[in-house]
């Protein structure tokens, strides 16, 4: 009987130790799982950008957007303005700003389309645009009356027929119907030049924009010039311009419709 009791107690103690061992193993496994899960969550968090980084990217994006908006506003302000060529024989460049496509005269008036990095883009005629440096254009020009411009023209070209200037602003086909076929026609990237006896017409977009009298005696009209330089003088009127370009002891005279 005593042997059975001792055997029963031994079996009970063995089951108790087994249960304790299983419990300890279960606790250890649970603890390992908790630690592993925590490590996994931490790893996922570290893959996200820091809050400061997000804020910096947002500020930079807003700054870039503001700069682009300001640039567009500046471009809009310059677009649609009319500017004058401020120096004789100004080179006009293609879009590469290297290739010369035209040579503009003092006082030539063009629409400015935009300004970029020290250059301005001009609408030369209906189909052609070109670039000049900002230093070679001006947006302001002192002016006199058209009567003063006409009187100054008569002073420097006294032998010209006053009726000739009536063709300014007219369609070239109508003018040719009146004056006849020109002796010669020359063209550049911007204008056509129709040569008649004693003068030639500058034609742009099929309209007579100017009349030139070449090899005239050098003379100075009694009118204050808008700009007077060694290579040329320019007199700005309300709707007309007078330009004088001296060379080899003579000069070329241009009367132009704006």
Compact overview of the structure:
The chain is 36% helix and 33% strand. It is of the alpha+beta class and 258 residues long. An eight-stranded antiparallel β-sheet has the order 8-9-10-11-15-14-13-12, covered by helices on one side. Strands 6-5-4-1-7 form a five-stranded antiparallel β-sheet. A two-stranded antiparallel ribbon has the order 2-3.
What does this structure look like?
Strand 13 and strand 14 form a beta hairpin. The protein folds into 3 domains: 2-76; 79-138, SH3 type barrels (Roll); 146-257, no CATH class. The strands form 3 sheets. An 8-stranded antiparallel β-sheet has the order 8-9-10-11-15-14-13-12, covered by helices on one side. A 5-stranded antiparallel β-sheet has the order 6-5-4-1-7. Helix content is 36%, strand content 33%. The protein contains 4 helices and 15 strands. It is globular and about 130 Å long. The longest helix has 45 residues, at 2-46. The chain has helices at residues 2-46, 51-78, 146-156, 172-179, and strands at residues 81-85, 90-93, 100-104, 109-116, 119-123, 129-133, 137-138, 184-187, 192-196, 199-204, 207-217, 227-229, 232-236, 240-247, 250-257. It is an alpha+beta fold and 258 residues long. The chain crosses the membrane at residues 21-41. Keywords: Membrane, Transmembrane, Transmembrane helix. Residues 64-77 have a biased composition (Acidic residues). It comes from Exiguobacterium mexicanum. This is SH3b domain-containing protein.
